[in-house]
Specification:
alpha/beta; binds S-adenosylmethionine; Cobalt-precorrin-4 Transmethylase, domain 1
């Protein structure tokens, strides 16, 4: 039987790795590192750095593989993601068939935590459903970008006794502020905060955990233009950006 470890590696700071994650990487015979093209080369570099810092097992091998690009033309969002996952599942299937021997352990280094806006677990389940390669797998948690954001701003995530919604830029308008007083927004390519009530508070962060980390917070109406400008400049300078923010209305102990 082959074994797969899906290891959360945190969001850019190599010190985000838990001892459990370091031990898992040191159990692996093969360390799978995804590459996402020139623009996101830094993300593969961070994974290489993690391997060279923590992996002490001389016989382990690193295998880099290209993540297929998501096609968006002439299909709905759901079709596009479904087809993309199918293509990644085929790539994983090939890795498990060709790069991992029977009885060996392979580790996928997953950004942040594998349960949060990441499809490695569901894609690994798709590979199992293909029934072309027999394997078992386990998941090792990691520090998420939500934790990194809250820590950098020194804030608790929720208001006392209140819920939090985690959503995407595309869906923000459906929930905040009518349905929830605290929303965490990820994967926002359209800067959805620009359309939100300027009285809300925002805690924004980009490249959290990395040397380029930027954080801005304040009354949305006061800081939103600054965030927009800072984001565009940083994106142009680095060629890529990952940002996340928390929006809040209301206060602790307010009903
Ligand atoms: C595909 S999701 C992966 C989330 C990841 N699994 C986690 O646990 O945070 C990518 C989104 O996570 C957020 N993100 C991940 N890493 C980040 C970082 N270092 N700084 C800011 N946002 C980050 C951004 O909203 C980005 O669009």
């Amino acid at each position: 039987m082959k074994n797969v470890l899906i290891v959360g590696i945190g969001t850019g700071n190599p010190e985000h790795l838990t001892i459990q994650a370091i031990n898992a990487l040191n159990c692996a015979d093969v360390l799978f590192i995804p590459t996402k093209g020139e623009a996101k080369a830094q993300l593969a570099d961070i994974r290489r750095d993690i391997v060279s810092r923590y992996v002490t097992r001389p016989q382990s091998r690193v295998v880099e593989f290209a993540i297929p690009v998501r096609q968006t033309a002439e299909r709905s969002y759901h079709q596009s993601v479904d087809q993309w996952h199918a293509a990644i599942a085929r790539a994983y299937e090939r890795l498990l068939l060709e790069e991992l021997l029977d009885g060996e352990v392979g580790a996928f280094l997953v950004w942040g935590d594998p349960m949060l806006y990441d499809s490695t677990i569901r894609i690994i389940e798709r590979v199992r459903a293909l029934e072309t390669v027999t394997f078992d797998y386990s998941v090792i948690p990691g520090i998420t970008s939500i934790q990194a954001l809250a820590a950098s701003h020194r804030i608790p995530l929720n208001l006392v006794g209140k819920p939090v919604e985690i959503t995407t830029g595309r869906r923000l308008a459906e929930s905040f502020p009518e349905k929830t007083e605290t929303a965490v927004v990820m994967l926002d390519g359209e800067q959805a905060f620009m359309a939100i009530d300027p009285e809300a508070r925002i805690y924004w962060g980009a490249y959290l955990g990395t040397a380029q980390e930027i954080v801005i917070s304040g009354r949305l109406g006061d800081v939103r233009d600054d965030i927009l400008r800072t984001r565009a400049d940083a994106r142009a300078r680095h060629g890529w950006i990952m940002d996340i923010y928390l929006l809040q209305k209301g206060r602790d102990f307010e009903e």
